[in-house]
Amino acid sequence: MDKNIQLATVGGGCFWCTEAVFQEVKGVEKVVSGYSGGTVPGRPTYREVCSGLTGHAEVIQITFDANVISYEDILVIFMTTHDPTTLNRQGADRGTQYRSVIFYNDDTQKEIAEIVIKELAPYYDNSIVTEITQLDTFFEAEQEHQNYYREHQSQGYCSFVITPKLNKLRQLHADKLKSA
Question: Could you give the number of structural domains in the chain?
Fold first, then answer.
């Protein structure tokens, strides 16, 4: 069967978390941590983005085979493995760089994002604050931020923040995982 390769770009707090989640999803070919949505010119650095002054969000860009997993399923997994109801915050990480955001590539992706948010809203006690924004530019993050969880699993942040998110993924979406 031919592949139907597509891109999804999402931000749900620290990109180390979302990267680790999607590296386990069946049909995902590649996950790249990076930055999108900023207002300053040029390529941002991690330090600049962490300052909160560039307007960029920490995001991941997911390359996936739509013949294996749909864009809708990608977004459902995204929305259910982070807290889409906290504005500019995920856990202890605070600032606009940690906002919940879906960057769409075309009108179809925008429509799907709107539908997914509407369908999931009743399952949350608080309102979903996830932004839906057209993707302008994606900047790949520095090499030390790629495959972060895989290379630093014993680090405290990974153990206490990322591992529980992966456990939630495995519980909620076992049928969508590469190991399933």
Answer: 1
Q: Residue 20 is part of which domain span?
A: 5-176
Residue 72 φ then ψ, to 5°: -60, -45
Residue 161's beta-bridge partner residues? none
Mean local confidence (pLDDT), 144-154: 94
Residue carrying the six token digits 């997911």: 62
Count the alpha carbons within 13 Å of 44 in the hemisphere toward its beta carbon.
27
| pTM (2 d.p.) | 0.95
The percent of residues above 70 in pLDDT, for the chain, comes to 99
Question: Is residue 50 within 8 Å of residue 96, measured between CB atoms?
Answer: no
- List the catalytic residues: 14
Paired tokens of 158: 């990974």
Q: What is the CATH number of the domain that holds 42?
A: 3.30.1060.10
Q: How far apart are CA 169 and CA 53, in angstroms?
A: 32
